[in-house]
Amino acid sequence: MKICVGLSGGVDSSVAALLLKQQGHDVFAMFMQNWHDADATLHGDCEWEEDRFVAELVARKIGIPFYFVDLSKEYRQRVVDYMFNEYSAGRTPNPDVLCNREIKFDAFLEAAGKMGADMVATGHYCRRAPLLDSDGKQVTINGLPQWRILEGTDPNKDQSYFLCQLSQEQLGKALFPIGHLTKPEVRQIAHLADLPSADKKDSQGICFVGKVDLPTFLKQKLAPKEGEVVEVYDDFYADNSQYAFVHDTLASLLAEPGEPAMITAFSSEDSGGAAFNNKCVETPSGQNSFDPSKLSTLSDKDWSRLSEPIDYSAIKFETEVHGSGKKHIKKTRYKDNPWGKVVGKHDGAQFYTIGQRKGLNIGGHKDSLFVIATDMDKNIIYVGEGHSHKGLSRSCVRIAPEDIHWIRQDLEMKDGEVRRYRVRVRYRQPLQDAWLVKRQSGIFILFDMPQRGISSGQFAAWYSDDDEMLGSGVY
Predict the structure, then answer these.
(1) 11 and 73 belong to one structural domain
(2) Which of 195, 218, 241 finishes a domain?
(3) Are residues 173 and 277 in the same domain?
(4) Largest CB tally within 10 Å, which of 147, 178, 238, 428?
(5) Are residues 214 and 238 in the same domain?
């Protein structure tokens, strides 16, 4: 079998190539350049040139042919432009998921095929396995053999989430040679083989762009525009009809009468940042036990409302004139509002995402401020103080019908079905117990534990109890 390995210059793809070569396959390496502009990176030079140099050394060490392909045009059109469009609309995209669907297992796969490759291999920490019937034969649907995506063996490096949008056709051409290994084992293999990439640090940042200052990167196309930062007080939620609806609806769905958990439990490990790490302590007070029979009785309209984020546009500020200083110079200020306060300025709501706490540069608070919402039309950022702020947590999200993607098409849900799955809404997040409810208006994901930092534009991927990723969708 002729296999093309996407050799990035990192240790993972290097060991993937080595293992395939040792297994007797006809292997060749191809390095893809997907990005030219280094202006926004934190390195100050073209990191890809160093990666290509290391990749070529690895190929020479292993004894396989090395080729180069420039896919920067496709990458900009399918991934980078998508990023800009999503951020400008107030959503938070995941370029790595799109990179795998649109570049590695599409444009790169096509380029490899022109070189005679039967399969493409990458250094992802995940596993591919055939879907077998009761007789042990591989299942086919419409003549296409069916495959399963399983989590990687290393729980600290599982990368199945990044592959959540792959199709069966793409999986049929994909290989993940290191998915059964842990990172230390991969490094050990690289050292034993004396590979030049054995001690190379893992890449960080945006897929193929590198570690970037995101606002600087986005400012290449999105113009800065000064706006207000509004802090939301707890009193707002006491008067908000949507928050009351969510509370009452969750309470009505509980298996036993009681107060529903509305705020995510957290631990000191959760350091926040551009997005939450979500290393949450699962406490009884932080989880809900829902009755699945009650989920079926909720109307489509109620499900849609339950999945909607809080609207903060009702927080408005009136101005008043007051005297200032010894000369009593007349100045204008906002009147006090029990729901919130303008606490600062920002340079563009499109540069911020839900759950973010860095980059706000607003002092005078005991606890950290977190972004809880953005209003792109009015260019307002809403923030809340502390990890336990009510605006940080949501229990339900909706995936529109056109955004639902089933890897296992044989398990596709029908309208009215309710299923129990484990769900991941961001990379490296521990799998979260949830109910999936299929309705005509989409799939609704109801989490046992409210989720922090939920931002539209991200992907939710659902898994079975035996570590198989079954489907995904943008919420």
Answers:
(1) yes
(2) 218
(3) no
(4) 178
(5) no
Token pair, residue 57, equals 């050394």
pLDDT of residue 63: 98
Assigned token pair, 254: 């509980």
Cα–Cα distance for residue pair 471/475, rounded to 1 Å: 13
The whole-model pTM stands at 0.91
Q: Which of 383, 407, 342 is nearest to 128 (CA)?
A: 407
3-state class (DSSP) for residue 299: coil
Residue 281 and residue 314 share a domain: yes
> What is the C-alpha to C-alpha distance for residues 32 and 104, in angstroms, rounded to an integer?
9
Which residues lie below 8 Å from residue 425, measured CB to CB, with a gap of 6+?
397, 432, 451, 454, 458, 459, 460, 475
- CATH number, domain of 76, equals 3.40.50.620
Catalytic sites, residue numbers: 99, 207
State the total domains in the chain.
2
- pLDDT at residue 335, rounded to an integer: 86
pLDDT for 208 equals 53
Quote the pLDDT of residue 428. 87
pLDDT in tens, 400-429: 999 999 999 999 999 999 999 999 999 989
- Are 141 and 208 part of one and the same domain? yes
The DSSP line for 242-272 is HHHHHHHHHHHHBSSSSPPP-S----TT---
Residues in the chain predicted with pLDDT less than 50, given as ranges, are 39, 42-44, 268-285
Q: Which of 218, 237, 264 is the last residue of a domain?
A: 218
